[in-house]
UniProtKB/TrEMBL annotation:
This is DMT family transporter. It comes from the Bacteria. Belongs to the EamA transporter family. Keywords: Membrane, Transmembrane, Transmembrane helix. It is a multi-pass membrane protein.
Length: 304
């Protein structure tokens, strides 16, 4: 990769990470806390994918008109399904369920481990052999996150919200891996569009079922949060992120380290959440562990 391509990759990566960083506070705005609930987490999850899916139809039609449409091959459909499971259903649904019960700053610390989780699952997927240092960082990072959740829960019992966050992180990692594998041939924008369009038979009915009976009863800020996650978190952000990964996955993935910081910062003006010292310390520790872990070698598996 030359210098110009590297700079372009880093710019696209920064745009994607910034858009994704606001996902947590915006999702919290959309679903509301337990004492003042707004939109259903199920509606937020499937509604945002339905909106983005309808926009994706228009985008793919435009690409077809320009002669630039890339149709998924038969062998790629399983990857599309895995990507949809991770980024359309798993990550957003369990994140929304969790953020009904915990602040977005809490979610930012837990999901800070997502880059390392993605790297670990990717290594297992490709039958690679992570080094002992990589495994040590993975264990340390997981221990820090679990320690943070126990501290916030006030005991060994983690609670449903933390379990939701762990599921969100794991499914999100699978979605990132699947999307990254599809990007070189289909193109960054068309990957997420095909995933969204193929998911419409599922997302539209479920979104309709969980739609608020009286939309006017939902606060304006909740609708603002929903519009953001539909347009930017579910659609435009992936345009930038997958394009960045296609240009330079190794360097770009390091940018993801600043995403938890941005999420913490966005939560203050958007939600009025307070950053306590322990949360910031845990976030720094997790991010440092992820940074070191991603520097550790991962060896290719033996040829079969």
């Amino acid at each position: 990769m030359n210098h110009a391509q590297e700079r372009e990759a880093l710019i696209w990566g920064l745009v994607g990470v910034t858009l994704f960083a606001a996902t947590l506070p915006m999702t919290r705005l959309a679903v509301g806390p337990t004492d003042a609930p707004q939109l259903s987490p199920w509606f937020v999850t499937f509604g945002r994918a339905a909106v983005a899916g309808l926009l994706s139809i228009a985008y793919l039609w435009l690409q077809h008109a320009r002669g630039r449409l890339n149709l998924p091959q038969k062998a790629e459909w399983p990857l599309l399904a895995i990507t949809a499971f991770g980024v359309i259903v798993g990550f957003p649904l369990f994140l929304a369920l969790a953020l009904r019960h915990v602040p977005s700053t809490h979610g930012a610390v837990v999901t800070a481990l997502l880059p390392l989780s993605t790297a670990l699952l990717g290594a297992l997927w490709y039958r690679q052999r992570p080094s002992a240092g990589f495994w040590a960082c993975a264990v340390l990072g997981s221990s820090l996150v679990l320690g943070f959740m126990v501290w916030r829960a006030g005991g060994i019992y983690l609670g449903a919200a933390n379990i939701y966050l762990l599921i969100a992180m794991t499914t999100g990692a699978f979605g990132y891996i699947g999307g990254a594998r599809l990007t070189p041939r289909l193109g960054a924008e068309q990957v997420i569009c095909w995933v969204l369009v193929c998911s419409l038979p599922l997302t539209i009915p479920i979104a309709w079922w969980f739609a608020p009976a009286v939309p006017s009863a939902i606060g304006g800020m909740a609708w603002l949060g929903f519009v953001y996650v539909a347009l930017f978190s579910m659609w435009i952000g992936f345009f930038a992120w997958y394009r960045a990964l296609a240009l330079g996955a190794v360097r770009v993935s390091q940018i993801q380290l600043i995403q938890p910081f941005l999420s913490l910062l966005f939560a203050v003006p958007l939600l009025g959440e307070r950053l306590d010292t322990v949360t910031v310390v845990f976030a720094l520790a997790v991010i440092a562990t992820v940074f070191v872990g991603k520097k550790m070698p991962v060896h290719q598996g033996a040829a079969t």
